[in-house]
Amino acid sequence: MALLLPIDEADITVSVVSHGHDDWLPDLLAGLARTGAGRLRRVVLTHNLPSSRRIEGVWPFELVEIHNSHPRGFGANHNQAFARAHTPWFCVLNPDIAITDERLWPALQAAVSVPGVGAVTPTLLNEDGSRQDHLRALVTPWALFLRRAMGRRDRRVDWFSASFLLVPAAAYRAVAGFDERFHMYCEDVDLCLRLQLAGFRLVCVPVAAVHHAQRDSLRRWRPMAWHVRSLVRLWCSRSFWSYLLRPPHQGPVDRR
What we know:
Elements: E1 3-4, E2 12-18, H1 25-36, E3 40-47, E4 58-59, E5 62-67, H2 74-82, E6 89-93, E7 97-98, H3 104-112, E8 117-125, E9 135-136, H4 141-148, E10 159-160, E11 164-168, H5 169-174, H6 187-197, E12 201-211, H7 221-235, H8 238-244, E13 253-254
Parallel strand pairs: 1-4, 2-3, 2-6, 3-5, 8-12, 12-13
Antiparallel strand pairs: 6-11, 7-12, 9-10
Helix pairs in contact: 6-8
């Protein structure tokens, strides 16, 4: 645990899970320290794979490191971090996110503080500045066919990626966090659906962060198997069918 600087109004816990992302961590922590000072109370860094990197430095937040004895799923790791949060807001953040805009945390915190909001996300950009497709329609077999086979972009938004999302702790607790039966993939879809079924709204905030996404679910057999298994679990879930059959509704707000 790194030395702790004085904290006044800091009320956000950030959860980062490293799957061998040691080389990304110094820049990530430096970005969090530079842009989140005074707002981030704690960063919970979970090493899901063995790591020899020693985190050095003095941070404007409490740094808590967890070294798993065996790899855990995406949702299980973040739920484990949430148990150590004890702050009004909880942030799920990928280690390959780059944060440089100092307006980001104030904008996200303002949006997530609005009554009825269950989760917010910034606009995620690729390294070349183009927008990522992290705001997505409900994942159905037909939607996947249109997207993969026909190259058609989603025309509605029902969920967004958990690469970077900020949630009120009360909302996260109300829906029992991530469903740990999803080892990897679709746990963010399920969480967003359950938040909306519980009466919360999702919001996209017009501040940007860069996501150095490394998507390999279609290039390696194990991630692809996880992806297929998670899709089947999603399509058999109560949250999927409850959301699909609910009356027409408005998806997340994109404040572009």
